[in-house]
């Protein structure tokens, strides 16, 4: 083989290891052009894509390398891993098989092959690989844990539980096995056993926010809402409090911390200014909103093509320790005498709900004025809007990441008491809030994972520049029972196509208006035209009661 490219290959590899991926890719690309029969440059390009978290982009490069040198086992194994990452499990199995000698291969290769076979539905072959993996490692506790994780990921919960138990018998200090055994019990509905295990873990891992969050979900499923909310808030504080210190250390703990969006940065700047003007912000953070504004201008000047953007190192150094963090939390306490408007005719509300097919009704003057004000203060002042993943210009906050307060728990209880025919047998399963950018769109068509959906709005009517819109569009067509969560929440084109020939009900926006409807109904945000400024942002709060059948 021509040795001329050796020095350039070493240089490209060094750049890649240093994280300078663009420069490394440029060198590899030049080498591939100069030496088209050398597979190493193609392999290098593939590994750059792997480092970027882009397995789909790596596949073509691995295949190009293997076309040159079909027996390049390292490229074959990485190709199999990339097929696994994009959920093409049969292709992954085929490539793992091509580079694995099952009779004599090392244990880690058996594990990968077994996991791929399980994911591809080859249960017997996958189980045989995992059992041989355990035997080959002499039932080492870590190997038993890995086997349990593999079964767990494949949904084989009984197999997973057995391996987790065996791992704990050999090493009672193996907390990951205990946590995962608790998760299996939780998924199987053995809530008392799961709770006991989670609490055992927390005896030594008091700062583990994931366990606190899981325990919160378990307590919610036991209808112990106050305790659940306390766990969720504790998890949020552990994970979301500001992180002063070296930004590089923050990135070590969370490599995705530089990911953000312009609409999320804008919301944070507005909240920081709002808190500062009301004396709610620590003096050390008085100028923080200005730093966010600077970063917004810099990112916008680069004309990003996606709503998700990555801050550079200097930008992250300025705002990274506070970005998407809990800078302030305003309580929303219980309202004496009740949160719901006492003048509501709840019997008529129930009659109206059941009179529609599918079930739906609109409730005006939903909350007492005091309750509405407390919820608005909570939403405007609490920096809990951590989710910016969707492109519609709205940010979300969810129950499991700390969205909730005593007033919302009071409201949930009152609704179940006042609307017994609809909600008495339906405990609260989830709740969230969304806050919208006035210059962008809202939520696309979807259904929710529940039986009953309550959606209500809390922004004053004066903020809405078009009173005929800004509310909710509810289609009379239900999402098919066989659709899973991902289908009825994320496959927008399929949902729109399914619902387009359906009649729809347009519920116009009004402050303190609630819409109660069957969660299986497809719905979306109507066109929004709200004034600019934090206090004018459209805010809706959603409560879901009981889980959707089959979810």
Structure description:
The protein has 551 residues and is α+β, with helices and mostly antiparallel strands. The chain folds into 3 domains: 43-221, Serine Threonine Protein Phosphatase 5, Tetratricopeptide repeat; 247-319, no CATH class; 346-545, q2cbj1_9rhob like domain (Jelly Rolls, Sandwich). It is 52% helix and 11% strand. Strands 3-9-6-11-5-4 form a 6-stranded antiparallel sheet. The chain has a 3-stranded antiparallel sheet with strand order 8-7-10, with no helix packed on it. α5 packs antiparallel against α6 (89-98), α9 (141-153) packs antiparallel against α10 and α10 packs antiparallel against α11 (175-188). It is globular, with a radius of gyration of 27 Å. The chain starts with 5 loop residues before the first helix and ends in a 6-residue tail after the last strand. The model has no long low-confidence stretch (mean pLDDT 92).
Annotate the secondary structure layout:
Layout: H1 6-17, H2 21-34, H3 39-51, H4 55-68, H5 73-85, H6 89-98, H7 107-119, H8 123-136, H9 141-153, H10 157-170, H11 175-188, H12 191-204, H13 209-221, H14 225-240, H15 247-253, E1 259-261, H16 262-277, H17 288-301, E2 308-310, H18 313-319, H19 346-355, E3 360-363, H20 369-381, E4 394-398, H21 406-418, H22 420-423, E5 428-436, E6 452-457, E7 472-478, H23 485-490, H24 492-499, E8 504-507, E9 514-518, E10 521-525, E11 539-545
Antiparallel strand pairs: 1-2, 3-9, 4-5, 5-11, 6-9, 6-11, 7-8, 7-10
Helix pairs in contact: 1-2, 1-3, 2-3, 3-4, 4-5, 5-6, 6-7, 7-8, 7-9, 8-9, 9-10, 9-11, 10-11, 11-12, 12-13, 13-14, 16-17
